[in-house]
Amino acid sequence: MSGAQRTGNTVRVHPRLSLNQATIRRAPLADAVKVTVAAGVGSIGLWREPVTDVGLPAAAALVRAAGLRVSSLCRGGFMTASEPAARRAALDDNRRAIAEAAALGTAELVLVVGGLPAGSRDLAGARQRVRDAIGELVPDALAAGVRLAIEPLHPMYAADRAVVSTLAQALDIAEQFPAAAAGVVVDTFHVWWDPDLLAQIARAGSAGRIASYQVCDWITPLPADVLLARGLPGDGHIDFGPVTAAVTAAGYRGDVEVEVFNQAVWDAPWADVAAAVVRSFAEHIPLPAGAP
């Protein structure tokens, strides 16, 4: 079965679809919640900045009142600093993020681990500091019932955003800690190119490590700001069928987020974007029909 069913000209929203807030980035939290509900989507992926804008208690109450699940909170991480004061500050911020995730009712805190510190070329050292920081945060995560979801980013972001570039690298770190405390994010944009992807998804599933499955497409030509190179499923080059089948076979039954960074998408009316998300998910993400 495809990601949703068509009844006449109507697309039935898949019960596991989640609209990541980044896809309608300019919408304040209250508007993002309204748009998600109006589109018939039952889950939302939240970002910390819009939550902070309204305050954590108000944000949690808003989402609960709307009856939405929170599939994840983005983002923690940025933990590669070598200078002690900066390192302590990063750990403190991640502890706040863990508490925020728990208050919002999600068990998954997405980590974008951070790039190379200014002036550094030491990838191995930066990756070790990521591992060490996660180790320090594991007791906080376990106490809060929140999992640290390590998101590998495409290698073009290794210098400035994430020194963890492959699912294998993310698993090498996560597997050093309890599965309840450390998992991985499978984001099609970042990992679709990896020839070892399907094997690593199976590895992640066998250990119960898949914390989130995020879908968006890889579009070309790449824009000048490569952060904005994402498209809705079906707009680019990714074959979602094998990846989705692998994630399903690996046992993942959680929400599936559509997370798109794209200027044209951000400039469009929010309700139109939500409707396009529902349609593209229906047509290109072949998920089983079961609820999360």
CATH homologous superfamily assignment: Divalent-metal-dependent TIM barrel enzymes
Secondary-structure element pattern, one letter each: EEEHEHHEHEHEHEHHEEEHEHH
The span between the termini is 16 Å
Number of helices: 11
What is the name of the CATH architecture? Alpha-Beta Barrel
What share of residues are in beta strands?
A: 15-25%
**For this structure, what is the CATH class?**
Alpha Beta
Q: Describe the strand arrangement of the main beta sheet, using strand numbers.
A: 3-4-5-6-7-8-9-12
Rg estimate, integer Å = 18 Å
Mean pLDDT: 95
What is the number of beta strands?
A: 12
Helical residues, percent: 40-55%
The structural class is alpha/beta
- Global outline: globular
Q: Give the low-pLDDT segments.
A: 1-9
Characterization of this structure:
- The protein is of the alpha/beta class and 292 residues long.
- The protein has a single domain (12-284), classed as Divalent-metal-dependent TIM barrel enzymes (TIM Barrel, Alpha-Beta Barrel), CATH 3.20.20.
- It is 42% helix and 18% strand.
- The protein contains eleven helices and twelve strands.
- An eight-stranded parallel barrel has the order 3-4-5-6-7-8-9-12, surrounded by six helices. A two-stranded antiparallel ribbon has the order 1-2. A two-stranded antiparallel ribbon has the order 10-11.
- Strand 6, helix 5 (123-144) and strand 7 (147-150) form a beta-alpha-beta unit.
- The radius of gyration is 18 Å and the shape is globular.
- Residues 1-9 have low confidence and may be disordered.
